[in-house]
Amino acid sequence: MAYSGKVALITGGGSGMGRAAAQTFASAGAKVALLDVNTAGMQETAHGNGNIHSYPVDITSAEAVNNAVEQVEQSLGPIDRLYNCAAIMPFGKIMDQDTATIHKIMDINYGGFVNITKAVLPLMLNRGSGDFVSFASMAGIQPALLMGGYNASKAAVAMLTEVIYHENLNSGLRFACICPPPVATPLLQQGKDTAWPKLMSEQEGQELQPIEVIEAIESALDKGEFWVFPGKSTRMGYRMRRWFPNYTWNYIHKLEGW
Ligand SMILES: NC(=O)c1ccc[n+]([C@@H]2O[C@H](COP(=O)([O-])OP(=O)(O)OC[C@H]3O[C@@H](n4cnc5c(N)ncnc54)[C@H](O)[C@@H]3O)[C@@H](O)[C@H]2O)c1
Fold first, then answer.
1. Does pTM surpass 0.85?
2. 133 with 178: CB under 8 angstroms?
3. Distances 85 to 113, 150, 190, 205 between C-alpha atoms, Å
């Protein structure tokens, strides 16, 4: 995207990859709207950059999301790019995790994605242009012990994104479904604070930087690629899951020791 004068809306822009995207787009001349519950985080993202605008919104409220999208379009102009980043990631064995927590993960990660999609996608479709960038995860492709609630939410995001893409193939929009491996952002701490599978600790020190993911997305959009697997061996992980699911589960059981 030639950024100058374009409008990007980023949910979860108060931290991590949303922040990296916001700062990248804004410094290249785009007007950026952040939707997040983390107001302090949004201020840090904006860091005095007049191109970045904060909208304190809980993504689980369809009404609040619709109002914010309306305000963004009125004050900044038509949204050219959507980044759906807002998410939470508490881990735990399903039998140990609160029922309310399992529901909350789905409400934010999947329900929030539904809300922002229903608010922004019709506007883009009416105009016949826009970049629809949806953050799933490798955790939405490869399930793992202790990660079930999060796995389910990200699998739901990936599945819905794929259907949305195919339902709107000739719409003029560009669609991308992002499936990163671990990325060095505050999100990982939520997992560490709850339950940390050996599968995750095995990958410590190899996390991607947020900007590497943003660059991978940019390159995929330019090439017209829908699935985005940032990082060197991520696509191989996807293939292993598809072709050898028993092998990957055996590996996980052996690694975790149960
Ligand atoms: N970090 C990773 O290892 C990793 C890997 C693969 C995929 N992802 C996905 O990438 C996306 C970005 O993750 P990140 O690592 O930058 O996370 P992050 O924790 O750094 O940022 C997520 C943001 O979402 C916001 N948020 C949470 N609940 C919200 C709500 N109800 N309403 C509005 N905003 C809310 C948080 O306040 C936070 O600012 C997420 O969808 C995540 O699932 C992350």
1. yes
2. yes
3. 9, 14, 15, 23
pLDDT in tens, 199-220: 999 999 999 999 999 999 999 9
Give the whole-number percent of the chain exceeding pLDDT 90. Answer: 97
User: Phi and psi dihedrals of 122, rounded to 5?
Assistant: -60, -35
- Share the mean pLDDT of the chain: 97
Number of folded domains that form the chain = 1
Token couple for 205: 């020190």
The encoded tokens of residue 184 equal 């060095």
Q: How far apart are CA 191 and CA 213, in angstroms?
A: 20
**Does 150 qualify as catalytic in the annotation?**
yes
Q: Which domain holds residue 46?
A: 7-256
Which of 55, 83, 150, 165 is catalytic? The answer is: 150
Kindly list the strands in the beta sheet with 81-84, ordered across the sheet, starting from the edge strand earlier in the chain. Answer: 52-56, 31-36, 7-11, 81-84, 131-135, 174-178, 227-228
Domain of 84, CATH number, reads 3.40.50.720
**Three-state SS at 151:** helix
Residue 2 within any structural domain of the chain: no
Provide residues with CB under 6 Å of ligand 1. 11-12, 14-18, 36-38, 41, 58-60, 85-88, 108, 112, 135, 137, 180, 182-183, 185-188
Where does the pLDDT of residue 48 fall: very low under 50, low under 70, confident under 90, or very high at 90 and above?
A: confident
The pair of three-digit structure tokens given for residue 189, joined into one six-digit string: 């701490």
Query: Closest Cα to atom 36, ligand 1: which residue?
Result: 12
Q: Examine residue 156 and state whether it is found in any structural domain, yes or no.
A: yes
151 in a structural domain: yes
The answer to whether residue 144 scores a pLDDT higher than 80 is: yes
